[in-house]
Specification:
It contains four helices and four strands; from the N terminus they run ααββαββα. It has a single domain (about 15-105), classed as Aspartate Aminotransferase, domain 1. By secondary structure, the protein is of the alpha+beta class. The chain has helices at about 5-10, 15-30, 60-70, 90-105, and strands spanning about 35-40, 50-55, 75-80, 80-85. α2 (about 15-30) runs parallel beside α4. Strands 1-2-4-3 form a four-stranded antiparallel β-sheet. β3 and β4 form a beta hairpin.
Length: about 110
């Protein structure tokens, strides 16, 4: 039973991995010039994007909470670091939405 998810991932989702990686890179590219955030698109090699908050008065937990109210779920991985992960539930349009919501959240 537990191995079922792994079997499905290996037999049905492998072809989708490149789409997840592309979406992660698109998110990083969409945030590279966001004021108050540091993102390195060159470091995105998988479906995971790390971003660092550069605003002195903003902590990752607060921003993550604010973004969650808008449907964008990011994981605080440090006081000023967040992690985003793309998967088969995330489409290119979702990435555009997430980038816009993150930019808005950084403004205020």
């Amino acid at each position: 039973m537990i191995a079922a998810a792994g079997i499905v991932a290996l037999t049905e989702m492998v072809d989708r991995l490149s789409e997840d990686h592309d979406n992660a890179h698109k998110l990083a590219e969409g945030l590279v010039d966001a004021e108050g955030l540091s993102v390195d698109p060159g470091s995105v090699q998988t479906n995971i994007v790390y971003m660092n908050i550069t605003k002195d008065d903003l902590l990752s937990a607060h921003l993550a909470e604010q973004l969650a109210r808008e449907g964008v779920l990011l994981l605080p991985t440090g006081p000023r670091q967040l992690r985003a992960v793309t998967n088969y539930h995330i489409a290119a349009d979702d990435v555009d939405y997430a980038a816009a919501v993150i930019r808005k959240g950084l403004q205020g």
